[in-house]
TrEMBL record, chain A:
It comes from the Bacteria. Signal peptide: none annotated. It comes from Gluconobacter roseus NBRC 3990. Residues 99-192 form the LUD domain. Pfam families: LUD_dom. The lineage of its organism: Bacteria, Pseudomonadati, Pseudomonadota, Alphaproteobacteria, Acetobacterales. This is LUD domain-containing protein.
From TrEMBL, chain B:
This is Glycolate oxidase. GO terms for cellular component: cytosol. InterPro entries: Cys_rich_dom. GO terms for molecular function: oxidoreductase activity. Residues 3-83, 128-221 form the Cysteine-rich domain. It holds the Pfam family CCG.
UniProtKB/TrEMBL annotation, chain C:
InterPro entries: 4Fe4S_Fe-S-bd, 4Fe4S_Fe_S_CS, FTHF_cligase-like_sf, Helical_ferredxn, LUD_dom, LutB/LldF, NagB/RpiA_transferase-like. Residues 338-365 form the 4Fe-4S ferredoxin-type domain. Transmembrane segments: none annotated. GO terms for molecular function: 4 iron, 4 sulfur cluster binding; metal ion binding. Residues 1-49 are annotated as: Disordered. This is 4Fe-4S ferredoxin. One of its GO terms (biological process) is lactate metabolic process.
């Protein structure tokens, strides 16, 4: 359909708006960033419907185990936690639908919005972010950035083919504004601050 | 300072007391005020409907009537907005430019030009809900709007605060349009009336005894809805309160 | 079927429901009431929005819920705005970035194409909806696709995509809950962000009972949502292709971004191995710095939540997968040349103008009888069909709230007024309005004629001058009392009481 390509570009050139419209310089708006971003991250995460697990210094993975309260397969995508399942080269995207809990590590977090960034590198199979019923996420507190401007300075955007900010669990309010978690994606999302080894 | 008074058509017809109060109020400040008797309208009904060509002669007449004044003052922000921002059906001559830039809504004239700091004669011991016409609010910027992140301000409230005994009633949707909308009120009557009823309900809930505004047009619509609903609310133009009306 | 309740909702005193798209306080319709349907469409005849709006208002429970729900979104938006010191600066930036990009749109489109292609995305160009549909069908046929899952896209609504695919035996499954409700009810979305916001829970229960076999007497939102999840999931898992729209397209990195709250775009894109994205050519922005501005503004403006639950960035197909982007013009390049109306191309489809619009909240989005409803619809729809949508720019009081909530600062209410001028200039105005305004213009241009037209007789039926009442019925008086006419006009009073000045003021 190269005919349409040329026709569209030609029409755009013909109809271009007049005047010099310089590209604005976007500031980072991060002068007010607190030194410790954990607190703001927690507040934002909870606002988005996520939960922060209480760390246990003696047994770092105990909070993860305690968060698993429903029966069903647990998929681990992290070396720190032994689940029932692992992603293998044979794993198909649809296989993840059987998973009750997936344990993942986020590439980084965003304090402004309580967002967690995942790319295919952390997800292994992209559907591990959405097809499980519940997510438990490890986040290195050193990998929290203040706001979205800072977030888009990160290297992930030009390295990954797929990257997602997940901010709380799947949510809908399409029926009379009633909040329901787990419309299509995960029903709950818990985060444990845990430095990367 | 020579001031020309513009009394919008519906004020002339239905609310002469608003015109009188505006005139008397301006005279209290020692201004020489004249009302050109051959005036009709600002042209808004036609412009508002998109019929710019049909507005041209009315606009010409407006300029002929008012070009000789230093300021043109009117108790209507909506008409002021028409003159200042939308009077474009006629050629932009020097006279047109003069009239368009010198036309002021009463409140902004008192607040910004005369910089009035007292109304010693005014006393209004009632609970009052303030209504801002949308053109006056968002195009003339007579007050801050809830849509924007800006420092709160309100010129009409600043003036009303100088009136003895007045008490303000807060609306839950202070900036919500009441549904008058000029010719909208007749062309889209169903939605217009529903918006008016909702506005009246909000005013009632606020515990207001009076509603005031610097625009009679919105209040004419609201009052029409209130009467039909049997709502016990009174509507009074801000010019009357500032001029010393007691009720 | 049991639904998993979030604890906020199990606490009867909870009022903190304000994340995602949820309302900040519980709203619940009290009665069941038949759902009013949208505007009556008769071929190319001008849509009568007010007729449909009146039916919506007559359905009092629907109107009240719709108004309360959308006003709540507006208030949540305000709250977010107050939490961001640089809010107005962000709006300026967003507007500036969009205007800059539109001024070099050919450059940025080619840059995106180059970068996306380098990352393995196949980029297609479609001049209109028909070509878009044909391109997608061709991709699907080559892969033998029978079932397609898709996330919400206003562009595919523009293209009549669902109906086209149905005619070509491809099953399309909408995965956004609201959009799925609308699909199952064979109704268009009524709002760009919350497509089923005009429906009560009982309406949804009725639709689901008929289509997915839920209990017709259970109108609990959790139950209904859960039923839909259970019914849709097998379809998602068995689909051979996924389709999404795109909220933003980043030229410099070849990335397109999709924002959802349900995660359904991610499911649609990542579950099957074939992902097709349909994207309007105006969605381009230059770089990632710019993207930050829009992601910060989008959900805050739309729903009053800091970000959508999912913000997904696609830069290339996954291993073994296939990714296509169809860049669609469908009138956009022509709009770019419309001096008064090109700014509508800055729109990011957040729906804030709809939420704040007092007319939209009382009318319901389907009353507009067009793909785009509300303020943004009034200025976009006539570019698609000037005759059919000629009445829409009159469905506004020109109050300007829309312009001031718009995150990209589109001068919406000014464009609505400009459309009225343009339409009247092109003869696309209803005869009633035309005749009435011609008469008004003549009367108001002459002080003598004007004074003579006033209701001096004060007879009961002639309270308003004729130019205000030239209509089949006196619409003013249906639901409003007519103002009492005083004994004398101001003009008469002045002539009597300021005789001397009256002489001086003669022109």
């Amino acid at each position: 359909m190269s005919g349409s390509r040329e026709a569209i570009l030609e029409a755009i050139r013909k109809n271009h708006i007049q005047g010099d419209r310089a590209r604005p310089n976007v500031p980072l708006f991060d002068q007010a960033a607190p030194a410790d971003l954990k607190e703001l991250f927690q507040k934002s995460l909870e606002r988005m419907g996520g939960k922060l697990l209480t760390p246990d210094a003696a047994d770092p993975m105990a909070p993860v185990r305690q968060a698993i309260v429903k029966a069903g397969p647990v998929l681990s995508c992290v070396p720190e936690f032994e689940g029932d399942m692992k992603v293998t080269p044979q794993t198909k995207p649809t296989d993840i639908a059987l998973v009750e809990y997936a344990v993942l590590r986020a590439a980084f977090g965003v304090a402004e919005t309580g967002s967690l960034c995942f790319t295919e590198k952390q997800l292994l199979v992209n559907t591990t972010g959405f097809l499980p019923q519940h997510l438990i996420i490890l986040l290195d507190p050193a990998q929290i950035v203040y706001n979205l401007h800072n977030a888009y300075q990160r290297p992930e955007w030009t390295q990954a083919h797929y990257a997602v900010f997940q901010s709380g669990p799947s949510a809908t309010a399409d029926i009379e504004g009633v909040l329901v978690h787990g419309a299509q994606g995960v029903r709950s999302l818990s985060v444990l601050f845990h430095p990367a080894s | 300072m020579k001031v020309g008074l513009f009394v919008p058509c519906y004020v002339d017809m239905f609310h002469p007391e608003t015109g009188i109060a505006t005139l008397e109020l301006l005279e209290r400040f020692g201004l020489s005020v004249e009302y050109p008797v051959d005036q009709t309208c600002c042209g808004q009904p036609m412009t508002n409907t998109g019929c710019e060509r049909e507005a041209a002669k009315t606009e010409e007449l407006f300029v002929r009537n008012f070009e000789k004044y230093d300021y043109i003052v009117t108790p209507s922000g909506s008409c002021t907005n028409q003159v200042r921002h939308n009077m474009t059906a006629i050629e932009e001559s020097d006279a047109v430019k003069h009239v368009r830039s010198r036309t002021y809504e009463l409140v902004e004239f008192l607040h910004d030009v005369l910089k009035v700091d007292a109304f010693p004669w005014a006393e209004f011991p009632h609970r009052v809900a303030l209504h801002n016409n949308c053109n006056t609010l968002r195009n003339l910027r007579i007050a801050s709007m809830t849509e924007r992140r800006e420092e709160p301000f309100s010129k009409p409230k600043a003036l009303l605060k100088m009136v003895k005994g007045i008490e303000f009633a807060d609306l839950t949707r202070p900036d919500e349009c009441c549904g008058f909308g000029g010719t909208f009120s007749v062309f889209e009557e169903g939605v217009s009336a529903k918006m008016g009823q909702d506005k009246v309900t909000d005013q009632l809930k606020s515990g207001a005894e009076y509603v005031t505004s610097s625009d009679s047009s919105c209040m004419m619509h609201q009052e029409g809805c209130a009467r039909r609903m049997g709502a016990n609310l009174k509507y009074i133009h801000i010019a009357q309160i500032l001029n010393g009306a007691r009720a | 079927m049991t639904a998993e309740l979030h604890e906020e909702l199990t606490d009867p005193n909870a009022d903190q429901l304000d994340h995602g798209a949820a309302s900040s306080r519980p709203l619940k319709s009290r009665i069941s009431e038949p759902q009013p349907r949208g505007a009556k469409v008769h071929g190319n005849r001008p849509i009568d929005q007010s007729e449909a709006a009146n039916r919506f208002i007559a359905a009092t429970e629907h109107e009240a819920m719709h108004d309360a729900r959308l006003w709540d979104l507006r208030q949540k938006r305000d709250k977010e705005m107050h939490g961001i010191e640089e809010w107005e600066e962000l709006r300026d930036l967003a507007s500036g970035i969009k205007e800059h990009t539109l001024s070099k749109l050919d450059y940025y489109l080619e840059l995106f194409e180059k970068n996306a292609t380098a990352n393995g995305i196949k980029v297609h160009w479609a001049k209109d909806g028909a070509e878009h549909n044909a391109i997608v069908l061709d991709i699907l046929r080559k892969k033998g696709v029978e079932r397609l899952i898709k996330s919400k896209s206003m562009l595919t609504e523009e293209c009549g995509f669902r109906h086209f695919m149905a005619e070509n035996n491809v099953e399309v499954i909408e995965t956004d809950l609201g959009e799925r409700i609308q699909q199952l009810d064979d109704e268009a979305p009524s709002h760009v962000v919350v497509p089923a916001v005009h429906k009560l829970r009982t309406d949804v229960a009725g639709v689901f009972a008929k289509t997915i076999g839920s209990d017709p007497d259970n109108a609990d939102a959790h139950y209904l949502t859960e039923c839909q999840r259970e019914a849709t999931r097998p379809l998602i898992l068995s689909a051979q292709a996924g389709m999404t729209g795109g909220n933003f397209v980043v030229a410099e990195t070849g990335t397109f971004v999709v924002c959802t709250n349900e995660g359904n775009a991610d499911l649609s894109a990542n579950t099957p191995s074939l992902h097709i994205a349909s994207i309007g050519i105006e969605k381009l922005i230059p770089g990632l710095d710019d993207l930050a501005v829009f992601v910060r503004l989008l959900s805050r403006s739309a729903l009053g939540s800091p970000i959508t639950q999912y913000t997904s960035h696609f830069r290339g197909p996954r291993e073994g997968g296939e990714m296509h982007v169809v860049l669609v013009d469908n009138g956009r390049s022509e709009r770019l040349g419309m001096e008064k109306f090109w700014r509508g191309l800055k729109c990011i489809r957040c729906g804030a103008c709809m939420n704040t619009c007092p007319v939209f909240r009382r009318s319901g989005g389907l009353s507009y009888g067009a793909t785009y409803a509300g303020p943004i619809g009034l200025i976009i729809d006539p570019t698609f069909n000037v005759h059919k949508y000629r009445n829409l720019p009159y469905s506004s009081t020109l109050n300007g709230s829309c312009t001031n909530v718009c995150p990209v600062k589109i001068n919406i209410h000014e464009q609505i007024a400009d459309w009225r001028k343009t339409l009247a200039g092109e003869g696309e105005i209803s005869p009633v309005k035309k005749v009435m305004m011609k008469a008004a213009g003549e009367v108001l241009a002459s002080p003598v004629v004007y004074r003579a037209s006033l209701p001096l007789g004060r007879s009961a039926l002639r309270h308003l001058p004729h130019f205000m009442l030239y209509n089949k019925l006196n619409t003013w008086g249906r639901k409003r009392d007519i103002p009492e006419t005083p004994k004398q006009t101001f003009n008469e009073w002045y002539r009597k009481n300021r005789k001397q000045q009256a002489e001086g003021g003669k022109s």
